Amino acid sequence: MGLYMDVHTLEGGVKREDVAEAHAADLATQDAHGVKYLRYWVDEAQGKIFCLVDAPDAEAASAVHREAHGLVADEIYQVSEGS
Question: 2-79 — its CATH code?
Fold first, then answer.
């Protein structure tokens, strides 16, 4: 398993409530892919969403988004925790 940060960019901004609904759909879907979505951050005005996920690989993390709501990330990075 590894930590991944994915980045979504939605033109015209995004509503925090919509992101919360999408995250709930991720949580309902993640177990089938061996993934655990941990946290997310939102910049409503810029239309940016950042998701932190523990996953076997980037494709598994992306598969959850694809199946749960169809909003796949524009970018995904493997990251490590720092202090």
Answer: 3.30.70.3090
